[in-house]
Amino acid sequence: MNSETYTISFKVNREVVTIDVKPDELLVDVLREKLKLTGTKKGCGIGECGACTVLLDGKPVNSCLVLAVTVHDKEIITIEGCSGEEFDVIEKAFIEVGTVHCGYCTPGMILSAKAFLDDLDGIPPDEEIKKAISGNLCRCTGYIRIISAIRLAAEEIIKRRKEKK
Question: 90 pLDDT band (50/70/90 cuts)?
Answer without folding.
Answer: very high
